[in-house]
Amino acid sequence: LYHNPNFKFCNMSVVKKLTIIFFTLVVACGESPKKEEIVNKNPLFELEGFWNRTGTIQTVNGVPVDTVYLSDSDTPDLRQIKVFYDGNLTWINNNYNSSLPWKGGNGMYGKYQLVSKDSLLEKISHGTGLMAEWIKSYKDSLGIDARTYKWGFSLPEESKLLYFVEPDSDQIVETDYAELWEKMPDASPESKADGVWKRVYEIQYANGIPIDTVSVPSDGTLDIHFRKNGRFIYQVDNTGLSEPGEGLFYGYGGYGQFEFIDENKIIEYHEFVSGRTDSVIQNPPKTVGQAIELEFYNDDLFKQVQLDSVGVKLRGVVYERVQ
Known about the structure:
Blueprint: H1 12-29, H2 35-39, H3 43-47, E1 49-60, E2 63-69, E3 80-85, E4 88-93, E5 107-116, E6 119-128, H4 130-142, E7 147-157, E8 160-165, E9 175-183, E10 195-206, E11 209-215, E12 222-228, E13 231-237, E14 252-262, E15 265-275, E16 289-298, E17 301-307, E18 313-321
Antiparallel strand pairs: 1-2, 1-3, 1-9, 3-4, 4-5, 5-6, 6-7, 7-8, 8-9, 10-11, 10-12, 10-18, 12-13, 13-14, 14-15, 15-16, 16-17, 17-18
C-alpha cells in the first residue's frame, strides 16, 4: 500500500463526516475528550512523530461504508510507516516483490507545510523502489523539483489520524478512500541523535583506517536519515546516478529502532527495507542490530561509523541537519 497517484480521494467535507463518525464511536465506547482539550491542540505538534498505517476507509458519496484493516487483509504482514518531523516527511513500506528489479519495498521523501488546521501540502521530491521511478519520471516530464499534494487530515483521537488527498475541485467523486493511521509510541527519550539529517560526506575505510573522504553529489544521491525518540527511517535516492531498470536506480531505505549503548554509540535494529535489496528483511523489533559510533562536531553536524562485531570501523558518513 502506497500513495497511489491514480486513486481519487475525498475532499474536506468527507473529513468532517469521518471525524463526526469517529467521535461517535469514541463516545459510544468510552469517555469523550473534553472540548478544551480538542480546541487547544496544535495540529503540527500532534502530527509530529511516527505513524503506523492500520487500514483504509472507503466512502461512497462522502459517507464511510467500510474500513479494511491491514491485519484483516490479504496481506496482513504488510507494513507502512510514516514520520512528520520539522517540516520534513518520509514513509516506507515492506511491499517486497522478488520479480521486480529492486525487490524491496517502496518509500518517499519530501517537505510538508500546514495550510490550515485540517489541511497541509506535501511536496514529494525523492523516492525508493517503485516510487523512485515514478517521482523521477513525473519531475522530468514537467521540469519541476517536486510533486505537490494537498492533504486533508483529521485528528479525532490522540493516537489516530485520518488522511485524505484533496481533489482540485470541491466535488466529491463517487467512491473515495482515506488512510487510517495510528501514532507509534516513543521507543526512547529524546537524544542528541534526534533530527532530520542529510549525508554530505562519505569516509572510506581499509582495515579500520580512514583512507579517503568523498563529498556526496547533490544531483546524484540524496541520503536522508530521520531519527526521533528511538525510531528511524532513512531513504537513499540514487536516481541521478543510473537509469531505470538498473538496481542502483531504485535506491534503498530502512525502518527500525535504535538505542544508545554508551554516550557516543548506538545500535540500529532494522525491521524492514525498501528499494534495492538482495534479501527480504522481516525482523521483529530490536532483534538484529548494527553498532554505530557517533562523533558530534556540533549540534548540526556529526559523523557516524558502522562497526563490525569486533569493533572494526567499516564505513563512515557525515550528516548535516536539514534546515
